[in-house]
Amino acid sequence: MNLSELPSIDRRVKLTDFSEFADRLKVMTDELRDQILAPRPRKNAPVFTIGELSELCGLDRQKINYLATKDGSDLPAGETHGTGRARIFSLKDARQWVQKVSTIYQTPLVTGTREQRGRVLTTANFKGGSCKTTTSMCLGQGLSLRGRKVLMIDLDPQASLSELCGLYAEKDINWDDTVLPYIYDPNIEGGLGSKVQSTYWDGLDIIPAHNYLHDAEFHLPAEQKTNPGFKFWSILRNGIEPLRTQYDYIIIDTAPSLSYMTLNGLMAADSMVMPLVPESLDFISSSSFWSLFAEVANGFAEHDVDKTYDFVSVLLSKVDYGTTSSAPVVRSWTQRAYGDWLHAIEIPASSVMSNGALAFSTVFDLSRADTVAKTLARVKQPLMDYCKWIDDQYVAQWRAGQ
């Protein structure tokens, strides 16, 4: 048979075809999510052994066991496990122990509000696959394990952070649950705080995202055009301000673009974290981010808009230490480019991390009994160390009354 006689494939795609394709794809992804996360509840917080609690609190195991079983103790006793000699503590239990007996400074509460203002961190990067969203979630979880109360704000229409918090963007969230109503009307009843939801992780709340967040990219420039005095970059900052007395940390996950909403996140932040994979394209992409942000910053400066970040931290992530890795070369570029901004802590790559991503989980979601927990410990510990470093910066400010 002559090949020229075979029927050709019509590869043309009309705009109207995308709707049918998206509907088919949605059915498939819903089925996949149900398989991964069934049965409900979709996500469960980890449990902690006495050994893990000992590490979190900085106390030896014997002291933990004594305090847990002491008559009249106001500390959670946990649940006996196995032969009855071992104890397992819930996440809520563990956080109470940290808050009550560890040497970690805890922010004083007065009539339910914090004496010191909570701090706002924003993660940013243009490059997909940079671990930006996973890093945001890990920062929230790691800081909560230091006794902190944390609010996550998802500004990415892809809503990946919301899904890491156990919420389905298409099933559990609609546009009214996001920051969008506040962006449209900053005078809404309850303000931005009315959009806060609790999560499966004790001490961690979220304002989730939805793909309708894209609408803000049309609304904000339209407002700016009709109202020359409209400060589009300050909307989110103003909304967050009342929440600072309710949370120790507010962590904003931005979209991988320098959009109006990303700029709102960057201008609301006290500090900025950029996860960076040490690969050539990732490094170049990070350079593009700073070039564009510098242009915007210069424009702000011309209009007397001033801002100072407490710190900018570049965190090397998914670092491959293999002999054929390009990480050493890119690390040297990064050191030259970023200087003191580049943090000494690095997050190593792990072959089992993809399994966690598939299950919408992070290294903090695993209990020590899980088969891959020990393997992921080499990833988890640097993240805990990094959270401690961030926390130490702000504890110093809180102690100084700032």
Strand content: 5-15%
Shape field: globular
CATH superfamily of the largest domain: P-loop containing nucleotide triphosphate hydrolases
Number of domains: 2
Query: How many DSSP E strands?
Result: 13
Low-pLDDT stretches = none
**Could you give the order of strands across the largest sheet?**
8-9-7-10-6-11-12-13
What composes the largest sheet? 8 strands, mixed
Q: Averaging pLDDT over every residue, what do you get? A: 86
**Rg, nearest Å:** 23 Å
Distance between the termini: 82 Å
Helices, by number, come to 14
Q: Bin the helical content.
A: 40-55%
Q: Which topology of the largest domain does CATH recognise?
A: Rossmann fold
Instruction: Output the structural class.
Output: alpha/beta
- The CATH class assignment of the largest domain is Alpha Beta
Listing every helix as H and every strand as E from the N terminus to the C terminus, the arrangement reads HEHHEEHEEEHEHHEEHHEHEHEHEHH
Please give the CATH architecture of the largest domain. Answer: 3-Layer(aba) Sandwich
Protein name: Chromosome partitioning protein
Domain AAA: 119-285
